[in-house]
């Protein structure tokens, strides 16, 4: 204590139990100091900040609070130098919303770099009279360092990159929850590995150019075509100590992909292009830091099925026998049924499409947008095109295009599976 000012401090270990410990600690501190009206908001905020510190830093956490005349400032210090930033993920995403909730529950918050990590702070109540507020740095990225290594990415598929980053984050989160439930596991090692992988994803996301595509279906379709969604060049600035950690990200996502394929995770498996994109990014980091030159992203988005999909618990006869053009795809993006009128419209013989990825009937300039949109729908339910008729071209067997009005609906099935029905109405 210093006059009417109370200051308290506690170090918490890198383990999940530190989150409820932090809540109990802040409640005890504020109650003892008479700040009963701020306890609930402080508990909610400290829970978010300490959770972020454990998940994204994986180090011990120092919790401190200063309480004075109706004003509380709480600081959480960890060993990561990556400053938090509010994500642009969808409101139904399984990740990325915590800092928005933090901002809604406190008076102010921010973050600052320190020599051995960072501090994330928040304030509640009224600031003591005459005291100057600290600058709010919550929207600032970490300062660029002179010794950062430059990696050049060429022909970058921006939509695919953005969807991959969100999908990868969801996979890592599911793996973390799974690993923390293993009896006798090394919790600190689990948190540290997850923190390394998460920090690298955040580093990539921070430096990826943003695309503003709009939300109206026609507006979205107009803006989400090549070459508008590919950047000729993106420069990454990577701190030297993070370069050697990219293999950790690769290993973590390889394991997550295997678990997702077996159904052990809530997040669906990675689409082939997402996996190849990740290998390209990490490969470019390794090659260029070893003195090699940049190689562009050249992978073609293929209509060939790369996935061994399970049989859908669904009767395809309603589509196969339909008298209008209908195409059904499963939740692996594979065509599972096609009506005779749809085959005639697209120029295929019976059986010529079933078992292939739906990319086979999507013109190449739309394929990046489709893969990104399909992935985001699978992981967070984002669906700007579901139920809304849009006018689009479809690719026929002979390579020509037909313009159709496409309406997509989703049909939930047992076991958590989904079939998507696309009704194609030719535009004359």
- Give the radius of gyration: 25 Å
The major beta sheet can be summarized as: 5 strands, antiparallel
Strand order of the largest sheet: 1-2-3-5-4
Mean model confidence by pLDDT: 85
Strand content: 15-25%
Residue stretches low in confidence (pLDDT < 50, at least 5 long) are 89-96, 130-146
Task: Please indicate the count of domains.
Answer: 3
Number of beta strands: 12
Shape: elongated
Order of helices and strands: EHHEEHEEEHHHEHHHHEEHHEEE
Number of helices: 12
- Portion of residues within helices: 25-40%
- Span from first to last CA? 80 Å
Overall structural class, as computed from helix and strand content, comes to alpha+beta
Architecture overview:
This protein has 12 helices and 12 strands. The chain has 428 residues and is α+β, with helices and mostly antiparallel strands. β4 and β5 form a beta hairpin. α1 runs antiparallel to α2 and α2 (39-56) runs antiparallel to α3 (98-105). The longest helix is centred in the middle third of the chain and has 23 residues, at 158-180. It is elongated.
In short:
The chain contains twelve helices and twelve strands.
Question: What's the SSE blueprint?
Answer:
Blueprint: E1 6-12, H1 18-32, H2 39-56, E2 61-68, E3 71-78, H3 98-105, E4 108-114, E5 117-125, E6 149-157, H4 158-180, H5 187-206, H6 217-223, E7 230-238, H7 240-243, H8 246-261, H9 272-289, H10 317-320, E8 326-330, E9 335-338, H11 340-346, H12 364-380, E10 390-395, E11 401-412, E12 418-426
Helix pairs in contact: 1-2, 2-3, 4-5, 4-8, 4-9, 4-12, 5-8
């Amino acid at each position: 204590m210093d006059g009417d000012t109370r200051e308290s401090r506690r170090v918490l270990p890198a383990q999940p139990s530190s989150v409820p410990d932090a809540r109990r600690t802040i409640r005890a501190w504020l109650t003892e100091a008479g700040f009963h009206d701020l306890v609930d908001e402080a508990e909610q905020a400290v829970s978010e900040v300490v959770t972020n510190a454990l998940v994204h830093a994986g180090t011990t956490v120092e919790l401190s609070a200063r309480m004075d005349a109706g004003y509380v400032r709480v600081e959480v210090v960890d060993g990561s130098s990556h400053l938090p930033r509010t994500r642009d993920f969808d409101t139904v995403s399984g990740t990325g919303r915590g800092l928005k909730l933090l901002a809604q529950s406190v008076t102010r918050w921010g973050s600052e770099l320190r020599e051995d990590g960072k501090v994330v702070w928040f304030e509640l109540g009224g600031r003591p009279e005459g005291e100057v507020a600290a600058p709010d740095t919550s929207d600032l990225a970490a300062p660029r360092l002179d010794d950062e290594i430059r990696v050049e990415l060429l022909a970058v598929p921006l939509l695919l990159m953005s969807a991959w980053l969100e999908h990868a984050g969801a996979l890592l989160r599911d793996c973390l929850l799974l690993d923390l439930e293993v009896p006798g596991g090394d919790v600190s090692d689990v948190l540290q590995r997850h923190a390394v992988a998460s920090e690298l994803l955040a580093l990539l996301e921070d430096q990826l150019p943003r695309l503003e595509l709009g939300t109206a279906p026609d507006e979205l379709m107009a803006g989400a075509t090549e070459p508008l969604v590919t950047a000729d060049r993106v420069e990454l600035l990577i701190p030297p100590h993070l370069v050697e950690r990219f293999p950790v990200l690769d290993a973590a996502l390889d394991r997550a992909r295997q678990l997702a394929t077996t159904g052990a995770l809530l997040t669906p498996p990675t689409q082939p292009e997402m996996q190849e994109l990740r290998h390209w990014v990490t490969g470019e980091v390794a090659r260029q830091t070893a003195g090699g030159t940049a190689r562009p992203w050249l992978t073609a988005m293929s209509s060939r099925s790369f996935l061994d999909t399970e049989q859908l618990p669904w009767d395809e006869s309603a589509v196969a026998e339909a008298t209008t053009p209908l195409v059904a795809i499963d939740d692996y993006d594979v065509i599972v049924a096609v009506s005779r009128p749809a085959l005639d419209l697209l120029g295929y013989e019976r059986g010529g499409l079933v078992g292939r990825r739906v990319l086979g009937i999507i013109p190449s300039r739309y394929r990046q947008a489709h893969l990104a949109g399909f992935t985001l729908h699978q992981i967070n339910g984002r669906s700007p095109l579901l139920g809304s008729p849009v006018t689009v071209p479809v690719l026929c067997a002979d390579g020509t295009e037909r313009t159709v009005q496409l309406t997509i609906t989703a049909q939930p099935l047992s076991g958590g599976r989904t079939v998507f029905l696309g009704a194609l109405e030719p535009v004359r």
